[in-house]
Amino acid sequence: MATFLNLFASGIATGAIVTLAALGFLITYKATGVVSFAQGDMITLGAYLGVWAAKDLDAPILLAYAVAIVAMFGVGVVMERIVYAPLRGRSVHVIVITTLGAAIVIRALINLWRGADPQYLDSPLRGKVLRVGGAVITYQRVAIVIVTAIVVIALIWAFDRTQTGRQVRALAADRDTARLYGVRAARLSLMAFGLSGALAGLAGVLLGPVGNFDLTLGFSVMLGGFAAAVLGGFGSLGGVVAGAMLIGLAEQLVGGYWLRDYKDAYPYVLMILVIALRPTGLFAKGGHARL
Amino acid sequence: MKAARRAVVVGAFAFVAAACGDDDDTTEADATTTVAETAAPVDTTAAGTDTTVPAVDTTGTATELTEPAKVVMLVEAKGEGPSAVPYFADGAQLAVDEINAAGGVGGLELEYERISAPTDPAAAKTALQKAYDASPTGIVGFPSSGQAVPLAADVKAAGVPFIYLATAPQLLVGGTDSVNDENAFVIRPPNSSLAQEELQYMVDEGATKVALLCVDSPFGETGCNAVEEAADSLGVEIVAREKNGPTDTDLTAQVQAIASAGPDAVIAFDFPNPLGVFATQMIDNGVDVPIMGGASAALAIAAGGVTGPAATNLLGIDDCVPVVDPRPVAADFAEAFETEFGYKAGYGAAEAYDGIYLFKAAIEAAGSTEPAAVSAAMKELTFEGVCDPDYQADAGNGLHDRSYIETFAEDGTPTVVKEITFG
């Protein structure tokens, strides 16, 4: 029972981090139609900014996290200006490849700035564990789940109850018509990239304290996030969250019991099986975009 | 059309300018790459075919040189590559600064140039060509066997004395698939029996049931296989063998599997980041057994993510541990390095430092910068360095024959618990 609980908790925590990455994809995709492959390296940059704020600026750790998240909002806005805005109207494939190039540039810049040595981001929850039914769950992983849940609820509320959120949904449903009705697509794309950057920063400061990390921190998270978005359905916020949880549980819970050496592949096997049976994803409805 | 023609002319001019320019820039390789590939082959007749070794004075007395010695360092520095670390470049720079402050080599300033050598063998070959273009007396470099082994034949063909910062049987004279380069030396100890030494240590500490954690890479597989092969003869039962990905941040499944197997000890062939996560998760789950982490242990602890009981359970094995070595040469180096660069020196920095000093000693003993004389002198040297109290070339041109097993305090401070001497 303890093993099951450990693996289940680990799967939920993994799913929560993947959720944050997938939400970053979702927001930029809905506002601009673009999937940003720089999201993984943005997560890495968020963690490095946390280390910079904590060590070089000597900021208290929670303030360091806040600095990293705010800075990443700015990075997201800069990304929109440099990577997306000049290519607006071009083929989506061109923009996607450009985001991949941006990812490589971000990683190279981090390397030049901080080097390739492993880094560690401290946490006020370091070393603290919760014991439930014989299972041991670190407070850091509990925090990851709780914070992600808050973010998801906040996003649902924002997209449902605020004018900006409704405008983003309108853009997602029918971009041309929304613009004809006066929705300012350019302003919303700036906001979407900024918010996506902030989510990447949040993911980085949550994931950083789990252990030492390096330039590869965000890459596998990004892959998981992409798989979650595809699996759950790019059009559905709830679908993306459900997809991320399935990804996390497939990797940790299923992988913990069966053919453990190949557990890293299980999320993608699951994704392929789902889209083979339901190409739009588990929760997307027909061909229409939804939030 | 006119613009295209103009572009061709400008491009040709730039090509010629690059070919003729004196390029000291070690980071911008693109302009000179093409030139290096089309340059005339290095003349090896003087050094590569003459097997008559001149007598050399190995008494260690300084000899005046008529031309300055030059050493080239083939390593990356911070930011130059995805796995570039600053240790080697910093260690070498410290040595060069000290040598020149003390009067240089043979009364003349030691000329030094660092050339960025990417881990990709093709790019490393370009760096090697650039090194030869600089007409060095000796070269120190290639910290990765992935660079060194594919280029060993090129190194041999050039005939310039070379100290490898990597280790592999192929780099030693007489080693498996070796090119048998008499002018090349290996400053790292041989690692082929490290796995058995790690297991032996755990057995000596009382372990009879050992679990293995193997990163999903040739390094992990080879190390774990070596331990499994040696286990029977030492009366050890391998109770679990788990695999993890190189970038895993959650090893819950592996920890659960190993914990349920009830080992006395764990031997891990893993990269520093997942090793650190594993050590912490083992303690979190109440599995309080020693974990032999090899060279990754010190790196995992140095980054800061492993402290407290997780650190005290980790054991490492390093070529040397200069920060705790009481010998004056090591203590002075450790202090000077940390003062200069702001972080503690490990074996990588120490070996790069020693490599420069070894060349100084060999050149002065030879009384010449002539490659064959320097190589011959290197073979005869006995030298006290930071990383080895007694560098001496063996039959395979290996210079360094020992490693150290270390434990760590809760704050990560290392303590050497055993010295291992090879062959």
Structural account:
The complex is a heterodimer of chains A (about 290) and B (about 425). In chain A, a hairpin with a 2-residue loop joins strand 1 (about 130) and strand 2. The N and C termini of chain A lie far apart (about 35 Å). Chain A has helices at about 1-30, 40-55, 60-85, 90-115, 140-160, 165-175, 175-180, 185-205, 215-230, 235-255, 265-275, and strands spanning about 130, 135-140. Chain A has a two-stranded antiparallel ribbon. Chain A has 11 helices and 2 strands. Chain A has about 290 residues and is mostly helical. Chain B is an alpha/beta fold and about 425 residues long. In chain B, about 40% of the residues lie in helices and about 15% in strands. Chain B is built from 15 helices and 12 strands. In chain B, helix 10 links the parallel strand 8 (about 265-270) and strand 9. In chain B, helix 2 crosses helix 5, helix 5 (about 120-135) packs parallel to helix 6 (about 145-160) and helix 7 (about 195-205) crosses helix 8. At the A-B interface, helix 1, helix 4, helix 9 and helix 10 of A face helix 9, helix 10 and helix 11 of B.
Number of helices of chain B: 15
Distance between the termini of chain A: 37 Å
Mean pLDDT of chain A: 89
The side-by-side strand order for the widest beta sheet of chain B comes to: 7-6-8-9-10-11-12
The whole-angstrom Rg of chain B is 23 Å
Distance between the termini of chain B: 69 Å
Radius of gyration of chain A, Cα only, in angstroms? Answer: 19 Å
What multimeric state do the chains show? heterodimer
Strand content of chain B: 5-15%
User: Largest sheet of chain B at a glance?
Assistant: 7 strands, mixed
Residue windows where pLDDT falls under 50 for at least 5 positions of chain A: 287-291
Number of helices of chain A: 11
